[in-house]
Design goal:
By secondary structure, the chain is of the alpha+beta class. It contains 2 helices and 4 strands; from the N terminus they run βαββαβ. The chain has a single domain, classed as Alpha-Beta Plaits, CATH 3.30.70.1530.
């Protein structure tokens, strides 16, 4: 299972992904699914669910306030 941590903007999502990569957490910038946000075009960082707690800590220390967390099931 993957999670998407929603961000306020594409720029913030890119910054978050760089912070996570530097901390050894693989993350990619992705467009959030339509049902993940009512604000229209939203971006976030996608990562493995088991790395979520570490990622939230890294983002907090890096000055990024994470938004909503959206869980995404892997497709077979």
């Amino acid at each position: 299972m993957h999670v998407i941590i929603l961000c306020r903007s594409l720029t913030q999502a890119q910054r978050a992904a760089r912070l996570l990569e530097r901390a050894g957490i693989f993350a990619s910038v992705t467009k959030a699914p339509q049902n993940a946000s009512t604000r229209g075009c939203t971006y976030g960082v996608k990562l493995g669910e088991r790395r979520l707690e570490a990622a939230l800590t890294v983002l907090e220390k890096g000055g990024i306030t994470p938004g909503q967390i959206y869980r995404q099931e892997e497709r077979p």
